[in-house]
Amino acid sequence: MTIPEELRYTEEHEWVAVRDGSLVRVGITEYAQDQLGDVVFVELPETGRRLGAGDAFGEVESTKSVSELFAPVGGEVVAVNAAVADAPELINSDPYGEGWLVEIRPDDPAGLDALLEAEAYQALLRG
After folding, report:
1. Which residues form the Lipoyl-binding domain (predicted)?
2. Number of domains present in the structure of the chain
3. What's the rounded Cα separation, in Å, for the pair 50 and 86?
4. CB contact at 8 A, 115 and 9
5. Is residue 67 part of a domain?
6. What is the domain range of residue 23?
7. For each of the chain's 127 residues, which pLDDT tens digit applies?
């Protein structure tokens, strides 16, 4: 299972990539998409929506279940991946690339420090 070293992770199995210094891109991990099975529908927020850290911002529906998505940091949604809304299977085929979900401008970039590094996320998966 792939757990890219350069990303940060949440205990809810979202990944976070810092982009352009002031934005973060968010998606779900390879582990999460594997547990969900074939993703058939994604509900994402509108751009401009304000989120608090830990707020539910959408959901992913698969052939097995429906799972909520949670904001890893508080801030404003500045971009939504429309390609995933049209082709949710991108989450299964490329969870760390084309399957990204939203970009957020964090209110406090220091909040990223509370997220898990790759080694800690791997330990979480091992239980």
Report:
1. 23-105
2. 1
3. 24
4. yes
5. yes
6. 8-113
7. 899 999 999 999 999 999 887 899 999 999 999 999 999 999 999 999 999 999 999 999 999 999 999 999 999 999 999 999 999 999 999 999 999 999 999 999 888 999 999 999 999 999 8
